[in-house]
## 1
Amino acid sequence: MAKSERAKALEAKQKADAKALKELKKSSTNPSDWGRWRQLVETYKVTAEHDKALPWLMIGAFVVPFALVLTLGLIFAGGSILSVIMWIVLALSVGFLGAMAVFALRARAAVYKRFEGQAGSGEVALGMLPKKWTSEPVIAFTREQDVIHRTIGPTGLILIGEGEPNRLRPLLTKERKRHEQVAYGVDVRVIMMGDKEGQVPLDQLASHIKKLPKTLSDDKIAEVKKRLTALGTQRTRMPIPKGPMSTKGARASMRGR
């Protein structure tokens, strides 16, 4: 009997803990605690604040393909009710995908616009890379808040410099040599962020990295990542501007996965 009471008490405690955790996540302002639907809603709200055309573009992206597919369905349905229903479902699906595609593109543009020109903004672009890439933001920086980020993936080991080029070059050279010593024969690429000739803008950084020639296999990436743990890079994180916008809800679409 006592055992049964203890089991009931434990079950009640587990239910209470689960309820408390649910309430905590519900009231949390941390996007990582939110569900996928809330992430999408919050991302839409913040994006719409900066992009007044977003609702109309999404409506157009839904209505146009919906109407086209539905028109085709009415032409080829042949009078069958079941066929008409299937075409309606298909039209709704295509319209929804069109609206979500526009939303993902505009949300990504809003994120870049929001952080462009701020110290450490390269972290935003690195966050758009697929899971095969492992990024380490702000591995080194200057007093003037010029920073160096690092990412490793199929296109290699890459250092990204962000800030004033003349101040960054000595630091990039130093970090490149340190990484080459640890990486043992793996080429270390260097990218300079910016809008000048030879530089890569923030909103093009992720796509630029993905388009580079693939030089590392999955096994080699894992091997180099282990070696990098021994590298004594600066771990003091420079304060990076944070905002309320969450990109997690639409991130898969943004990455093109």
## 2
Amino acid sequence: MRLGIDIGGTKTDAVAVDESGDLRQRVRLATGFGHAAVVETAVTAVARIGELTGLPAGGFDSIGIGIPGMVDSASGDVAHAVNLGVERLELGGELAGRLGVGVRVENDVKAAALGAYHLLGLGGTMAYLNLGTGMAAGIVVDGRLWRGASGIAGEIGHLPVDPAGALCACGQRGCIETTASGSAIARQWPTDDPFPARALYAAAAAGDTEARVIAGRLAEGIASAVRVLVLTVDVEHVVIGGGLSHLGERLLSDVHEVLEEWGRTSPFLASLALPRRVRLVPEGSPVAALGAALVGGY
């Protein structure tokens, strides 16, 4: 039995999976804010899953953690997880001290990529395109994560595509993330709705011209990310996940439409069959926690 924990900005998802990778137990709890609270959240998640499985921390074959920010998977150190109030935290070491067993720590998007790859039963190459507050991708090659030379592989949200575009949080201007992310929608479409993308799509469906323009930019930005992933890594599958994936088939249809339009004007892009490579992660599936459980077994 493996244990996986996805520590999110507001919620933490923990799962126990068996030797086949099938989900056996799952719990969700609120994420604490700040260094000590994040560690305590993880310890509590282990205890809750332990109660359901009847296993102590040392009884699991492995324990893996997925968390936002820059993660050194070798040391378990986490940096710049700003939404958690964490600047620098030796998470792996602190949890090993509290639990008495080793813990593997990975970036949450990379963990989700591994979870999606397993859940969908894929082979070969896949990119998991996470559309949340920002945009990032995790790349899996033959069942294993591809991190690159310094672990930055997949940070395609910070590829500038418009020199005159909006200023990105990374300090560059016109990055893909500035048009295709939750923060991009919130900036362009202010609303009291807790899910701005839902409000944007509702307004677009009602005929609001500006909403349609913004939704069009969103689809073009996501399509651009798909094109980058295929042209640079030639992944066989691009799986869209993250908060914006809850828009479902409406979003996927818009992205497919952009990719198909590009194919009509470019025989080269048409030959790559981009629309057929793109799909959504199954709704409600705990891919990040599942991936964290699998990461723990590396």
## 3
Amino acid sequence: MTQKNDLRQDTTAFQAPILGKSIVQVVTSFGGFFATCAVMYLANAVSVWLALALAPLAAGFLVRIFIIQHDCGHMAFFRGRRANDVLGFACSLLTLAPYRSWRRQHAGHHGGWNDLDRRDRGADIYSSCLTVAEYRALPSWRRLWYRTTRHPIVANVLVPPLVFIGLYRFPFDTPKAWRQERRAVFVTDLALVAMFGGLGLLLGFGAVAAVQIPVMIAASIIGVFLFSVQHRGDTVVWARHKDWDSISASLQSSSYLRLPAGLQWFTGNIGFHHVHHLNLRIPNYRLQECHEAIPALRGVVPLSLGDGFRAVRSVLWDEESGRMVTLRQTDAIRHGDRA
């Protein structure tokens, strides 16, 4: 355990925010998003298809803004809590994810990710799974529901826009005891009504919908894909609580998604997720620096982008073989084939 603690201690050299880099990231992310949206509004007056062609670029900037919101939620982007909270709330008006409630929900995820005995903490269909034995024990209708909701098209294409645009407008998964977080959801909604209402009066509600909805759909799909592969894949490990510790889980139960330089920039280095779990206070722009400086982190097996697309199908943990498996592989396991 001493060596593991030394590993975490080594990462503390990278957790201090660098004000200049934080400001540059805010300027480039928000500036790029607003500039692209402005061009989309101009293009929309000529052709809706011309505007839609720019939606992926605007979505890329919006994903980067969400990474900033994520850092603010971990108090990692600035040194002061107030600065993080103010910027986090500002980000939420673009990402549509209520900052305060999302932050607390996400903290639950970090309390015991990939711990089979603590799947009730911050868990959702992307950061949790059933074991093969649990899946087999379900009645047929629940197995069908599990298969349907975990299908890549449903989970990674159809559900994300519904969550960000619709469900996040209500404290649908926020416990009633979290009164401040529940109120914050409605405060965010009021701010969104004022912001988009004013924009609609200025530019026309049809134009606003034609620009913002496609961007939000694309950004939510990209963002959820990134989240869903962070604890998936053949090399990812789930463990019972007695065998679980946060440092081992950082290296074995959090993925390292290695992306091309351009995609890494737009996704705010979140592919270095093993580093993030090892130390939540490291700003996204220092994750790669930390990864490259510490040999134990460089030893984590990376996922390629192609691996990431395949990883979203790994939705069950097979305790007997000690690996994540797909539903198709589960059907093979049922017939005694564990190859």
## 4
Amino acid sequence: MTKILMTSVRDDEQAAIKQFAQEHDVEIITTPKLIDDAVELTAGVDGLVIQQRSPVDPAVYPQLKAHGLKQIATRTAGFDMVDIQAAHDNGLTVTNVPAYSPRSVAEHALMQIFRLLRKSYRFDQQVAANDFRWFSDEQAMEIHTATIGIIGVGRIGGTLAKLLKALGARVLGFDVQPREEMAGIVEYVSKEDLLKQSDVVSLHVDLNPSSTGLIAAPDLALMKPTAGLVNASRGPVVVTADLVAALKDHQLAAAALDTFEGENEVVMTDRREKGLADVPLVAELHAMANVILTPHIAFFTNLAVKNMVDFALEDVLLVLAGKPSPHEVK
């Protein structure tokens, strides 16, 4: 029977894992540990599925080769935690899950766009302090009167664009590869024009050398002082220090961040006692009244979790059978 090891497994994934094992007659071994701390478990297994944000320890790749493994499947869209060249040098095929549920992240971004337009972050804080007043500068925008800019109009950004269009918003898009099928939904413009015109800018790009630092001080300076920024892509896409400065200087009104620089140190950790002193930029974001932080949970829905498990495991079986995977990372 084929044996597959899955690392960094959460309780909410177990039902989908059990169902897949039964339907495909495979044995799946799970551990909550990262592959870095569980590489010894790969001895005697045929396949490997990982999930983590931190880089895989370079020592792991030759150990996987020594144990006879032929692949690494990451059940995430991002694959920057894997050194692709090191994997290939050790005969390992790498796959990811590029579209586990575009709707999950798009719906989260839409929720945050609404929260920024309705200035709910201000009312949340006021009511929590027993202040039930409202002020002139808290007047909201109805979404059909707003211009929303999407940077990265791919699977997720395109799904968001369709949701926004259905609500009557004007949707601007910037992408290095505009898609013809988005005609009539998205108005493609330059990055600069999008930043200048948008009431909210939502980021939906992969993390790569060209997208790292994509939004920095000069970009933020182009935005309306009443505008908001949503980042549900990857933290390093935005230069956090520049964003903090722009928010303090009122170059833009607010930000909703599901991903942010320094998140690897805080996501899935309990900081109620320790606090955030060791991650000063995150601490600064957390303390700001006009910043909404969520712990990288835009993907976290019933359908997305099942798809991430199923697609990753299906890729393992394809590679083990000598067949090409449509999700192979070259």
